Amino acid sequence: MAVRDGAINDIPASAAPHACSLNQLRSAARWTARCFHAGPQHLNMPLHPRMTLNNWVQGRFGRADDLTSEELLTGPRHAATWVVIVYFRSIEYGRGTSTKKNAAKDQAAERALAALQERFDQEQQ
């Protein structure tokens, strides 16, 4: 069953499996259409820096509990700067600075990931 634009409500009642209602099937079709609207090329999109860091730490150490961050707002209100520091096992690995909080978080995550990979890949060799 293919979902086309505007065709979500055209799903016949006979297409619904016995275990779920027609409304549940339509809801699932809407969710699928929203999440996968870009087609298979969405798989090639780069992951978000914070997600990439979290996934790497979980994959390498089995959990991400030792990964923490600190967010500081510095400067006057009209020209504030966010400083985000990423720690792993209480050791600083990345620091990001920006006028936007999310940009500072992303920068800190990217730097932390690079430092962690460098340190733990060297230990493995």
Automatic annotation (TrEMBL):
Organism: Postia placenta MAD-698-R-SB12
Annotated InterPro entries: dsRBD_dom
Descriptive protein name: DRBM domain-containing protein
MF GO annotations: RNA binding
Residue span, DRBM domain: 48-118
Lipoprotein in keyword set: no
Highest taxon in the source lineage: Eukaryota
Keywords: RNA-binding
PROSITE patterns, alphabetized: DS_RBD
Pfam families found in the cross-reference section: dsrm (PF00035)
Gene3D superfamilies, alphabetized: 3.30.160.20
Acyltransferase among keywords: no
